[in-house]
């Protein structure tokens, strides 16, 4: 029998979450962001659940090729644009729309021979200070692009640094609106947090975005956890990581568990050894008490996570034993649920990082 660990990708949850994005941004078209191999879920595995999107946004040309191989004929946007001039050939061949965030990319376009002009998303650095033209340089870049025969339509784009937090988006929206006021073209501003917190049903007037970029919300993690959880936003986990108990131990008071003896039993207790470790993508940096479901009942981890195993407390589960189902995150038996955000918090990180880190060695199936 293979090692009992397994990941499941939930097609219905992906479609449900996408529908939530549409509710929150009713007037916008939705990019399903599938960079990083669909946030670790696998582009091919999420395709059925997300094919109702208006387009797919990603970074890697190889991932764009995989989408075309799935026969996706709709829009694909390269969020970081081209990394070198010859990438433009593939953009022409696969009909990829691409971000333009710096002058070098305009130079490459100007030198590019194409029969079919490109659709570009001109990115403004409105305060994130990662990619994009500063506001004072933006209109010059727009005019340069507009003069190129290689360019068809120019859309206007920016990215928020604080859509999930108290600083919010207003300061960046003000800069963006001021500079782009009289420029034609569609706008793309919102990521998941902006869609949920600053879209229809959010606080304040809904943000205008012709194309929203829905990443994390599609996968069923709350961008602003712990302020809000997925139940608050009506999202469902698109990934379950589950395994089984492969052994049990009975501890006496004073016994320790695992490497570094970081956990000491204060009373007799029963523990279960689970076939899941950091080589599967489970975070090592989470202490004892990280939430976990055993047969759908909430318990906690005990001691350090090792490469192939972790340990759970079975004291509240006298009936559990070898073969019991353990849900590391996602959907458990009997309608139980453990949000990836809770595990991420115990590891001092975010749901994004855990889902992206799901290891290659974990057998992954697609289901409902
Ligand atoms: C990754 C990314 C997104 C999606 O962000 P989420 O927080 O996952 O919704 C949107 N826009 C850009 C430019 C990105 O790189």
The chain-level structural class is alpha/beta
Low-confidence region ranges: none
C-alpha Rg (nearest Å): 23 Å
Briefly note the CATH topology name of the largest domain. TIM Barrel
Mean pLDDT: 97
Q: How much β-strand is present in the residues?
A: 15-25%
Core attributes:
19 strands, Lyase, Ornithine Decarboxylase, Chain A, domain 1, single chain, eight-stranded parallel sheet, alpha/beta, elongated, binds pyridoxal-5'-phosphate, 368 residues, TIM Barrel, 2 domains, nine-stranded mixed sheet
Q: Can you summarize this structure?
A:
With 368 residues, the protein is an alpha/beta fold.
Q: Which helices and strands, and how do they pair?
A:
Elements lengths: L5 E5 H14 L4 E5 L1 H5 L3 H8 L4 E4 L2 H9 L6 E3 L8 H8 L2 E4 L2 H9 L6 E7 L10 H12 L4 E8 L11 H11 L6 E2 L3 H7 L12 E4 L15 H4 L5 E13 L4 E2 L5 E2 L4 E6 L16 E4 L2 E4 L9 E4 L11 E7 L5 E2 L1 H7 L4 H6 L7 E4 L1
Parallel strand pairs: 1-19, 2-3, 2-9, 3-4, 4-5, 5-6, 6-7, 7-8
Antiparallel strand pairs: 1-10, 10-13, 10-17, 11-12, 13-16, 14-15, 14-17, 17-18
Helix pairs in contact: 1-3, 4-5, 7-8
This protein binds pyridoxal-5'-phosphate (PLP).
Pyridoxal-5'-phosphate binds next to helix 9 and strand 9.
Describe the structure.
With 368 residues, the protein is α/β, with parallel strands linked by helices. It has two domains: 11-221, Alanine racemase (TIM Barrel); 239-367, Beta Barrel (Lyase, Ornithine Decarboxylase, Chain A, domain 1). Helices cover 27% and strands 24% of the residues. The protein contains twelve helices and 19 strands. It has helices at 11-24, 35-39, 43-50, 61-69, 87-94, 103-111, 135-146, 170-180, 192-198, 230-233, 340-346, 351-356; strands at 6-10, 29-33, 55-58, 76-78, 97-100, 118-124, 151-158, 187-188, 211-214, 239-251, 256-257, 263-264, 269-274, 291-294, 297-300, 310-313, 325-331, 337-338, 364-367. Strands 1, 10, 13, 14, 15, 16, 17, 18 and 19 form a nine-stranded mixed beta sheet that branches. A hairpin with a 5-residue loop joins strand 11 (256-257) and strand 12. The radius of gyration is 23 Å and the shape is elongated. The protein starts with 5 loop residues before the first strand and ends with a strand. The mean pLDDT is 97. The structure holds pyridoxal-5'-phosphate. Pyridoxal-5'-phosphate binds at residues 33, 35, 79, 159, 191-193, 213-216, 223.
